[in-house]
Amino acid sequence: MKRGHRRIETQLAVIGTGIAGFAASIFALKRGLDVAQFGHSGAMAYTTGYLDLLGVHGQRIRQDPWAALDELRRDEPQHPMSKLSNPTIRTAFDGFTDALCDMGIGYTKAGEQNLSGLLPNGVAKPTLSVPKTMLPGIAAREAGARTLVLDFDGLQGFSAKAFEVNFAERWPALKSARLTFPDMENRQVFPEVLARSLENRATQEALAGLIRPLLNGAEYVGVPAILGMHAPDEIRARMEHAIGATLFEIPTIPPAVPGIRLRECFERAFPDMGVKLEPQLKVSNVEFGRSGATLFLHGPMEDLEIEASAVLLATGRFLSGGLKSDQHRLSEPLLDLPILQPDGRQEWFRHEYLDPRGHPINRLGIEVDSAFRPVMPDGDPVNERLFAAGAILAHQDWVRQRSGAGLAIATAYAATEAAAAMLA
Amino acid sequence: MPARTYEADVLIIGGGATGSGVMRDLALRGITCLLIDRKDLNAGASGGNHGLLHSGGRYATADAETAAECRREGDILKWLAPECIDDCGGLFVAVEGDDEEFAGAFPEHCRVAGIPCEPLTAAEAREREPDLPEAIMAAYAVPDATIDPFRIVLENVGHAQRLNDSAYLPHTEIEEFEISDGEIRKAVCRDRRSGERVEIRARQFVNASGAWAEKVARLAGCRDVSLLYSKGTLLISNTRVTNGVVNRLRLPDDGDILVPGGTVSLLGTSSVTVEDPDGIAPTIPEVDRILAEGAAMLPVLNETRFVRAFSGVRPLLKAAGSETDGRKANRGFALFDHEDQGLVNFATVAGGKFTTFRLMAEKMGDLIARRLGSAEPCRTAREPLPSGEALRWTEPGAAARDWFRRADPADMILCECEMVARSAVDTIIADAPGAEDHMSLKAIALRSRIGKGACQGAFCSMRVTSYLYDRGVYDSPDGLRLMRDFVKERYKGVRPVLWGAQMPQAELAEILHCGLAGMDLATDADGGDAK
Ligand SMILES: Cc1cc2nc3c(=O)[nH]c(=O)nc-3n(C[C@H](O)[C@H](O)[C@H](O)COP(=O)(O)OP(=O)(O)OC[C@H]3O[C@@H](n4cnc5c(N)ncnc54)[C@H](O)[C@@H]3O)c2cc1C
Ligand SMILES: Cc1cc2nc3c(=O)[nH]c(=O)nc-3n(C[C@H](O)[C@H](O)[C@H](O)COP(=O)(O)OP(=O)(O)OC[C@H]3O[C@@H](n4cnc5c(N)ncnc54)[C@H](O)[C@@H]3O)c2cc1C
């Protein structure tokens, strides 16, 4: 069979299907731009579902992310988020969570304070917005409410017992129990499989029926994040009703349902919204011409050529393939963008894994100007039509700073605004 | 706090190849031993070596006596402990630029030491090891083999425990000896986890503490043990690179030997004299040098993915010229009866090789048995080493084979890289040496392949920890602290080989350990150490 060949024209080509890429497409659409987005499964299927903005600054957990951002601008002027004002970041964040709610995945609106998101081991993390299915757990912990946490036979890396034991001192009314998931006896079970089977009403009822007799006065019931893939809020409401207690989800180790949910929700909604989305294709080459760029993609059946007036690079870091390294140097494989870096790998990682200062390598990446255009070492933009956003940017350490989604959303917003201004 | 007390015929200090060998040797003579280690089994050189069961070829040129000793001992172990050994054979290969004279004299040196040595053409050598380069000057086949150092030490201890009341105590560090009238009355130790004082009375005291033997001898006032500490670093690849052992045929230098170990390979090793056997870790320049040297012999190593590096300290006996170059030191061993130091119930065995541990244990066993008035002869040169159910999880690939054979869908895989199932962890918790004590993630990892695969503990640390909570082995935030200690320790070996394909792994590991487990922000109250 002859290989197909397809040409697409678009104003903005977004490379990357992580949070930064999806956020960029959302913002570009709002600006009325014609958007095409490309990527392949990356880090997003791994996220907890929490949207962090800035949970740690100065090696301390921060309750108020907005005040912490003010300090960040002072202490780390090169940080990508330091280029943006709090109102801009808030606009971006709200724009993203509103879009998620519109697409059917309920998220809480960013407040003034961080929330204490629960984690699988019975620890908590500072985050700004959480899936609505996870909010009651945070409230239950704060109130020390009578709560039952459940896990399932054959589900790895999630121990309700560990959750109970590690929270015990400050949350004595927390109890744990183990269930066999309906029709999943004697085997290893994966969160994704459980979530898909809970799309089925009969399974919801069967599970609720197993939970009810265990309640023993509990007001809240926590389960690993498995409450369906497409309409978790509805499933949660229905099961709550059947159980007679407030139900909440707790993130699991990856691959985790909340990230897959986001991905599937974008993939479902975007085509109707007008984004030309190719969620399983890598861009293999980009060539810049005078009036735009040509992107080359090679699908299993056809070759794609995209003519774009502007390009937004949101390809993430090593895990997603946005950065690479050999024994001595880091590189950006798609465009070979310059990376300011020390000589040799001696200084990439600190000697202590958990050094509170974080590893220098995590702050290496793509340098951008105030319009989020990658720059040459002399500070000039690599190309007027090229923008970058998300984890690939230099001078941030989103893992340690607890700012993954916030960084991706805020910089995607700023980069899209700059691209729109250039295209206008 | 009152001290815990123990009594045994013999206290053995040091849970490496030598100490565990002495334990089994004495138990076979009906003598009851208590083995202690300040950390855990194989915490020293026995857990930080190449795993090469030397044919003797490596020493044939410089030290015929050690070479012959290796050959004899290698044959005995292949015969009596086949479960722990992969008799894969080995090659000595000289490549372009290597010393022709040295290479040419090799067969004669082997003959003198009694080591079978078969000359091969370049084509024959490449047939055995297709990754060898075209430009081979000389190649010889020798009966090198590999030994699983974890398995054999666990088996030694396991067998001794089954033979009589011999027992093993981890995390017990000797701090002081109480001596009167030319005899040690008791050993005063510290439980390194609880801080408890532990007192051990015995009739005989054996110092088998490897690179620490000089320090331990000094605790008993003996000044006759004098060691040189030679640090060696090794790189572990993600897959097995060669079929058998490949040695560079030249004077020993960095990056000379590639040794398979089940499904992985180990490349090494450097030799750097250090002041202190404690606190060593592999460095980036060492790793780069070993790799560059190794790639001259096997260019494929430039494309090989390495998952970890580690270092060990060779306990070498001081000899002329050895102060500056550890490779010149004597690879033989010595037995110190310390009688000229005024003690009649203390002895030290030091130096040697992993390959010769049995012989070292035999000599020590003979001395101790004689002192205790036992006429029982050594039996370790004749008695096969039985293998214990709980002890077969250390070999790369073994857990996977077992899991596929049993095909039990309910037996969950906790470590996906190395296919370690719950059932394996269950047997370790139930029966492996040290199980009487508290089993932690680290202790289980030592007795299996957990944390040793490509992900280097990113996922399995969390899965196993969850499982240990489920089983009630952990019942407090301590379990989180132990997980944290484990990944911090693992990282030391991971850091020097972080590039290429390991970078995404490292990134994911940090996201999980910090983002999902909050290890970077943990305080004492929630399972970390306070800042
Ligand atoms: C385990 C885990 C847990 C997390 N938990 C949280 C959390 O609790 N809270 C939080 O706020 N954030 C969390 N995050 C972070 C978050 O999901 C994002 O990783 C982060 O925000 C960075 O987003 P990004 O879009 O810049 O990059 P990524 O998410 O890394 O996305 C990059 C994308 O680019 C694509 N790509 C790369 N090269 C090409 C190419 N040549 N052509 C086409 N596409 C390409 C990749 O396939 C991928 O889709 C977590 C991440 C992980 C991995
Ligand atoms: C890099 C390297 C590669 C090597 N490769 C090979 C090889 O391929 N083949 C080979 O045959 N040999 C090899 N060797 C040599 C071999 O590993 C050692 O000779 C052998 O393991 C020594 O065993 P041991 O039991 O005497 O000492 P160790 O294994 O060091 O045991 C000593 C134990 O004593 C304990 N201890 C120390 N102080 C105290 C105390 N105060 N109280 C209680 N316990 C204490 C330690 O924790 C340690 O576990 C290699 C060595 C190195 C370093």
UniProtKB/TrEMBL annotation, chain A:
Residue stretches spanning the membrane: 12-29
Domain of life: Bacteria
Pfam families: FAD_binding_2
Location of the FAD-dependent oxidoreductase 2 FAD-binding domain: 13-407
Keyword Transmembrane tagged: yes
GO annotation, cellular component aspect: glycerol-3-phosphate dehydrogenase (FAD) complex
One MF term in the entry's GO annotations: glycerol-3-phosphate dehydrogenase (quinone) activity
Record flagged with keyword Transmembrane helix: yes
InterPro entries on file: FAD-dep_OxRdtase_2_FAD-bd, FAD/NAD-bd_sf, G3P_DH_GlpB_su
Keywords: Flavoprotein, FMN, Membrane, Oxidoreductase, Transmembrane, Transmembrane helix
Protein name: Glycerol 3-phosphate dehydrogenase (Quinone) subunit B
Organism of provenance: Aliiruegeria lutimaris
Automatic annotation (TrEMBL), chain B:
Keyword Oxidoreductase: yes
Domain of life per record: Bacteria
GO biological process: glycerol-3-phosphate metabolic process
Cofactor(s) needed by this chain: FAD
One of the Pfam families matching this protein, by short name: DAO
Keywords: FAD, Flavoprotein, Oxidoreductase
Domain FAD dependent oxidoreductase: 9-364
InterPro entries: BFD-like_2Fe2S-bd_dom_sf (IPR041854), FAD-dep_OxRdtase (IPR006076), FAD/NAD-bd_sf (IPR036188), G3P_DH_FAD-dep (IPR000447)
One of the record's GO molecular function terms: glycerol-3-phosphate dehydrogenase (quinone) activity
NCBIfam families recorded: PRK11101.1
Similarity comment: Belongs to the FAD-dependent glycerol-3-phosphate dehydrogenase family.
PANTHER family in the record: GLYCEROL-3-PHOSPHATE DEHYDROGENASE, GLYCEROL-3-PHOSPHATE DEHYDROGENASE, MITOCHONDRIAL
Name of the protein in question: Glycerol 3-phosphate dehydrogenase (Quinone) subunit A
